[in-house]
Amino acid sequence: MALFDLDNTLIDRQQAVAIWARAFAADRGLDPAAEAHIGEALRERASPETFTRLREELTLAKPAAQLWADYIQGIAAKVNARTEAIEGIQQLRASGWTVGILTNGAADIQRAKLAAAGLTDAVDAIAISEEIGSRKPDPAAFHTALALCGSDRPAEAWMVGDNPEGDIGGAQQAGLRTIWLRGRPWPQHLSPAHHSVDTITDAIQILMKEGVQ
Fold this sequence. Notes:
The chain folds into two domains: 2-11 and 80-210, Rossmann fold, CATH 3.40.50.1000; 13-78, no CATH class. Helix 4 (64-78) packs parallel to helix 6 (107-116). The protein has ten helices and six strands. By secondary structure, it is α/β, with parallel strands linked by helices. The longest helix is centred in the N-terminal third of the chain and has 15 residues, at 13-27.
């Protein structure tokens, strides 16, 4: 079986955030520096608390809760699953693979992105950190995701993701094999992933060659 990260693995979150931040700043007459600040604040992780801080820093009129709700709606409208990711997941499942998604984040925003990208029904199980009570790189997050997929054998499972610490390091601690989607700097203290690839298509081809787990 295989677990996939969501953001910047199956969907291009960075691009969606950049587009959203540009529109958000333009609608409010904010300058490029403010737009850049918003993008940086949202770059790794967004939460209701993020918008509490942004509201104070940028003197925004709307309540933070409404800003968060607007963000959920807006970002969901701007994310798209990579076509090759959807097709690859379909190929894996047709070949007998069990496929799950393991993602860090608030349930409301992650569920909205999954639905908008057409991924909710494309996989066998979805594990979101807020819902399962643990976050990558905690091995418990990986073991819970495996359990939701009906597996208790991490040594027979793979994790595919872009985050060296969260996806790859955490999966290795949990006993999974790993495929790293290159893009971020690799920390020297981490053991290398079992495979390193440039595209999600490359990752899926490796899984297909490995055969059903």
